[in-house]
């Protein structure tokens, strides 16, 4: 698995970034190998977002990015700057998701 992380800093309106991201996300959602994605906004700096996308492998990610429809589509770079990273998972975990046990605790 590879994880794409892009720190996005606004240079234009937030609403425009979110509109463009939604269009890109609609395209990416149909691409083979995409596991999940999120656009999150910093709670300490409202001009900063993070795009986090998990892909099955590097090949799937590269294939999606080189699709002609993606290459010709609108870009969030019109209203932001990005600091892009393709990462490998070093460690992962999940919280207690047992139904009826908010916050976990002893079993």
Distance between the termini: 32 Å
Q: Architecture, according to CATH? A: 2-Layer Sandwich
Tally the beta strands: 4
Listing every helix as H and every strand as E from the N terminus to the C terminus, the arrangement reads EHEEHHE
Largest sheet: 4 strands, antiparallel
- The parts where pLDDT drops under 50 for at least 5 residues are none
SS content category: alpha+beta
Question: What's the tally of helices?
Answer: 3
Pfam families: ABM (PF03992)
GO molecular function, one term: monooxygenase activity
Enzyme class: oxidoreductase
Protein name: Antibiotic biosynthesis monooxygenase family protein
Characterise this structure:
Keywords: Monooxygenase, Oxidoreductase. GO terms for molecular function: monooxygenase activity. This is Antibiotic biosynthesis monooxygenase family protein. This protein has 107 residues and is α+β, with helices and mostly antiparallel strands. Helices cover 26% and strands 32% of the residues. The protein has three helices and four strands, in the order βαββααβ. Strand 2 and strand 3 form a beta hairpin.
List keywords for this structure.
3 helices, 26% helix, Alpha-Beta Plaits, four-stranded antiparallel β-sheet, single chain, 107 residues, alpha+beta, globular, 4 strands
């Amino acid at each position: 698995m590879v994880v794409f992380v892009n720190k996005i800093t606004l240079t234009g309106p937030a609403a425009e970034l979110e509109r463009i991201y939604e269009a890109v996300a609609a395209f990416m959602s149909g691409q083979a190998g995409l596991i999940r994605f999120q656009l999150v906004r910093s709670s300490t700096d409202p001009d900063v977002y993070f795009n986090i996308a998990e892909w099955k492998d590097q090949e799937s990610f590269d294939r999606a990015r080189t699709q002609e429809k993606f290459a010709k589509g609108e870009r969030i770079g019109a209203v932001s700057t990005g600091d892009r990273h393709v990462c490998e998972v070093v460690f992962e975990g999940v919280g207690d998701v047992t139904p009826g046990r908010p916050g976990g605790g002893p079993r």
